[in-house]
Amino acid sequence: MIEVKSSSVNRAEMDAAIGAAIMRWQDATQSYDEAVGAKLGLGMAERLCLGLLQTGPQSAGAIAIATGLTPAAVTSLIDRLEARGMLTRTRSLEDRRKVVIEQTETTRKFADRYYGPIAREGQKLLAGFSDAELATVLRFVTAALALQNEQLARLKAEPEEAG
Q1: Rounded to an integer, what distance in angstroms lies between the CA atom of residue 92 and that of residue 101?
Q2: What is the pTM of this model?
Q3: Mean of pLDDT values over 39-64
């Protein structure tokens, strides 16, 4: 862990240290997710789909947006994960034309096995911060996520570069 005393570090050094730490955190998170995927035989789109389902039941359209896949590719992805017992698909009670995709107990067990320890240790880590510090962390993470999503949308809107 990097210990920084604000009186001994100027703003530019602090900004650089934060930027470097975020890049290492992103790389570590991606490496961990890829390692989980390798253990479970899941590709990136499958991991994104299952991650989205952690927040609750979803439509196939929401999965398409989260994964960047076409509707036909999402159907194939759902078929594969359903065949493995990792999700279920049922008709919506409100609109029978819509399909609702949900995680299964198997998926919840995998999530707890691989991500539960991170969540539990993360809670212990957060317990060491004051309410004011947590408010600042939340403000930063929320703003950083919005920035990342804005930049992703900008990048996707750009035409492909000729190789």
Answers
A1: 9
A2: 0.81
A3: 95
- Tally of CB atoms within 10 A around 18: 14
Structure tokens at 21: 């730490």
Sheet of 87-91, strand order:
58-59, 99-103, 87-91
Question: Is 136 a residue whose pLDDT tops 70?
Answer: yes
Least Cα distance to 81 among 45, 27, 133, 31 occurs for 45
Residue 51: count other Cβ atoms within 10 Å of its Cβ: 15
What are the tokens at 78?
């759902």
21 or 98, which is more confident? Answer: 21
Q: How far is CA 142 from the centre of its chain?
A: 14
Instruction: State the distance between the two ends of the chain, measured CA to CA, in whole angstroms.
Output: 41
Query: 96 phi and psi, to 5 degrees?
Result: -60, -15
Render 72-133 in DSSP notation, one character per residue.
Answer: HHHHHHHHHHHHTTSEEEEE-SS-TTSEEEEE-HHHHHHHHHHHHHHHHHHHHHHHTS-HHH
Query: What are the tokens at 13?
Result: 């050094």
